[in-house]
Amino acid sequence: MSVWDNLTGQADAIAIFRAAAEPRQSAADTPASTTGGSAAADTGTARGTSASSASASSASASMTHAWLITGPPGSGRSNLAFAFAAALLSPGTPAEDATAERLVEARTHPDLVVLATEGVIIKMESVKEAVKRSQYSPSVGRYRVIVVEDADRMVERTSNVLLKALEEPPERTVWILCAPSEADLLPTIRSRVRTVRLRVPSVADVAALLVAREGVDPAIAERCAREAQSHIGMARRLATNPEARERREETLKAALGIRGVSYAVNAAARLLAIAGDDAKAITLERDAAERESVLRSLGVEPGKSVPPALRGQIKALEDDQKRRATRSLRDGIDRILVDLTSLYRDVIMVQFGRENEVINRELLVGVRAAAAACATVTTLATLDAIAIARQRIESNVAPALALEAMLVSAIRR
Q: Which PANTHER family does this UniProt record tie to the protein (predicted)?
């Protein structure tokens, strides 16, 4: 089984990384720096070429020390990054490769460093630690690989710490950054990485992946892939969690039922509650398991009080979990707004006579009623209001106020 088998819809990008990861028999095995000389010219060419049009042969002309994988949410950026990491860290024999793949999957490979955050931003201390570890030589593999998930979640001064590491890379270190787009990173960082852009996988590709990987019924897999708009992670959650599907359906029905301002206010409160329930479902079980694991590692028996000397470590864990809960709630609200975008996009499709392109087919009766109750320009105004609500919440406007203002535009009489 290949490390690339669990990826879907990104054949061109996989070909690029597969060719780049192939062991070389000469000094070319050393990653080429993307700063200065002919290597810089080669990177500049690759950076301006999308994965869909780049050939594997041109991309594999040289192995580079820094890569940037971009693509819309759910396109599989992190999955591809870790598959590439596994390929780089695989020694070459089947047994050793399988072991390396398992270690990468568990994020415990000695030559793998993962820089990620479950808070709102990546902390500077975390970046400094990753940069420090990037200076070490590989212990068992060909390379030391640092994967930076959500590289767009770094503030400018934190990004500058990463920039210095990319400017003077060790010979055997490979950086793999993931972000929605190149524009989310500093221009100075973009100039030092080779970019591979991913496309949105098709609904059929995502559904096939759910059937193969999760054993989901094909009909449910198709529905979840369609409703998630090919977002792989969200489709998987909808397919494996009936409660998540029910919460999503309740969200859309609440929006379709808005008939006045009071309806909008009540619907906003309900959407916030649904987002909160969704966030708790994601974090609650994990938080409990983390706390139990930490207490066990500290030698505290279940049910016993924590000694004063250890309370600082428990407090640090609780603070991390609170930050994760804040991000999870914000992500949950954003998912609701994305779902509402798909709903009013469906309304416009019906208004244009394109019912065959509706995403939320199970709610087609309500979508038709909403389409008949207003003009197309009103539906467009609602879509604009949703986009503005997302921007306001990202700027720390109170979610309840942002949702209420947005839902007022969704009134249909």
A: DNA POLYMERASE III SUBUNIT DELTA (PTHR11669:SF8), REPLICATION FACTOR C / DNA POLYMERASE III GAMMA-TAU SUBUNIT (PTHR11669)
Residue 158 lies in a domain: yes
Q: Assess whether 65 and 183 both reside in one domain.
A: yes
Domain region containing 287: 255-408
The reply to whether the predicted model has a pTM over 0.85 is: no
Dihedral of the alpha carbons of 71, 75, 76, 81, in degrees to the nearest 10: -10
Pick from 12-16, 59-63, 323-327, 338-342 the range whose average pLDDT is largest. 338-342
Question: Does residue 4 lie within any of the structural domains?
Answer: no
- 5: in domain: no
Q: 276 and 226 in one domain?
A: no
- At what angle are helices 311-351 and 399-408 packed, to 10 degrees? 10
Sheet holding 144-148, edge to edge: 112-115, 144-148, 173-179, 66-70, 194-197
- Note whether 228 and 126 are same-domain residues: no
Verify that 112 and 222 share a domain, yes or no. no
pLDDT digits 0-9 by tens, 75-123: 889 999 999 999 999 877 777 788 888 899 888 999 999 998 766 788 8
Please check whether residue 248 lies inside any domain of the structure. no
Distances (CA, A) of 5 to 18, 69, 79: 12, 18, 11
Q: Which two tokens stand for residue 205?
A: 């590709």
What DSSP string runs through 228-282?
Answer: TTT-HHHHHHHHH-HHHHHHHHHHHHHHHT--SHHHHHHHHHHHHHHHHHHHHHH
Same domain for 262 and 295, yes or no, is yes
Q: How many domains does the chain have?
A: 3
Tens of pLDDT, residue by residue over 249-277, are: 999 999 999 999 999 999 999 999 998 88
Which residues, in sequence order, are CB contacts of 252 under 8 Å at separation 6+? 339, 340, 343, 360, 363, 366
- Per DSSP, 193 falls in state S
